[in-house]
Design brief:
Helix content: 10-25%
Distance between the termini: 19 Å
Strand content: 25-35%
Structural class: alpha+beta
Largest sheet: 7 strands, antiparallel
Strand order of the largest sheet: 10-9-5-6-7-8-11
Radius of gyration: 22 Å
Order of helices and strands: EEEEEHEEEHEEHEEEEHEE
Number of helices: 4
């Protein structure tokens, strides 16, 4: 990881002396991403859904906010260069060939790379998985590269955890099952929950949610996705509560 050193010039009797201030660790930036947006999914899924793959400048790769592994500095450079080549000249939203079949209710694929000006260049590709042959081959190559990183995360990655979590509560008045008491020390939903209530937590509140709601959905590679359980607030309202770990830049 890059280290930034700030130097100050101090003068002393008989001449000048240069001293270095304590080095500060720079925050890693997302430099490549692959995600999904939209589609016929629940409000909870849409709110909680993490990127499929994010590559950070320090080499960390996080897949589905579930698995993580590290690339070498050379691998990061190669990945960024490849994505720059694949996405160069692509519009913000790609359009398939005119004779492509119509596909609805599926998520758009989002492919991104941090450009040399520091901004994330993102391209949205509707129904890429379903009609890949009707798009420029560069977009399918970019998706293939990201698929490879997801496969590596599933096979050689370790469990991803973080100190912060995102919690989503969805009204569940007719859902069957025993509702547990709302986790102690965690803020309860307030106001209108339409369609979901969302909050990001850290510290003791984050730990309480992780302990109370088992993780084990199937959104990520080999499962381990968002936890989900029924909970009842102090006022008697029942919610389906889901959570996932937040990414470093969220």
């Amino acid at each position: 990881m890059l280290l930034l050193a700030v130097f100050s010039l101090a003068t002393a009797c008989g001449g000048g002396e240069t001293t270095a201030a304590p080095a500060e660790e720079a925050t890693a930036q997302a430099v490549v991403l692959w995600g999904a947006e939209g589609g016929f999914v629940t409000a909870t899924t849409n709110t909680l859904r993490p990127p499929r793959v994010v590559v950070y400048s320090d080499g960390q790769v996080i897949a589905d906010a579930v698995k993580t592994f590290r690339l070498t500095e050379a691998e990061v450079g190669e990945t960024v260069a490849s994505m720059e080549k694949f996405l160069n000249g692509q519009p913000p939203t790609a359009a398939p060939k005119p004779d492509a079949p119509m596909v609805t209710d599926v998520p758009d694929t989002v492919l991104g790379v941090r450009a040399k000006d520091g901004r994330m260049h993102e391209v949205r590709v509707p129904a890429l998985d379903q009609i890949a042959d009707f798009y420029p081959k560069e977009l399918t190559e970019a998706k293939k590269l990201m698929d490879g990183l997801a496969t590596r995360a599933a096979s050689e990655g370790t469990d991803y955890t973080a100190a912060r979590v995102r919690v989503v509560a969805e009204n569940a008045p007719g859902v069957e099952g025993e509702a547990k008491p709302w986790p102690a020390g965690v803020q309860e939903p307030s106001g209108s929950v339409d369609p979901v209530w969302k909050t990001d937590l850290d510290g003791a509140a984050s730990a309480a949610v992780v302990k109370a709601v088992p993780q084990g959905g199937a959104t990520g590679p080999k499962g381990g996705g968002p936890g989900q359980s029924l909970f009842k607030t102090g006022s008697g309202a029942v919610f389906v509560v889901s959570w996932r770990y937040l990414l470093p830049d969220e």
